[in-house]
Amino acid sequence: MTVLAIMLGLVPALWSRGAGASVMKRIAAPMVGGMVTSTVLTLVVIPVIYFLWRSWELRRTQ
User: Domain total for the chain?
Assistant: First the structure.
């Protein structure tokens, strides 16, 4: 929910065309990329790594 709020808050900065828009786009684009990356890592990659590590550990003890 927080990630969605931050990303929606950055959308106007990404789509703006007024004075200083080029600077704001340079700031907002990496922030959106970081939010997407951290969300994917948290929801997909880390659980998969934990599952693989746990299954390897269980096979090793049996």
Answer: 1
pLDDT digits (tens, 9 = 90+) for 27-37: 999 999 999 99
| Tokens linked to 18 | 């007024």
Within 8 A by CB and 6+ apart from 56, the residues are none
pTM: 0.76
Extended strands (E) in 6-55: none
- Separation of alpha carbons 31 and 56, rounded Å: 36
The residues, ordered by sequence, that sit 6+ positions from 31 with a Cβ below 8 Å of its Cβ are 6, 10
Per the structure, the complete domain to which residue 28 belongs is given by: 2-61
Residues 6+ apart with CB under 8 A from 16: 24, 25
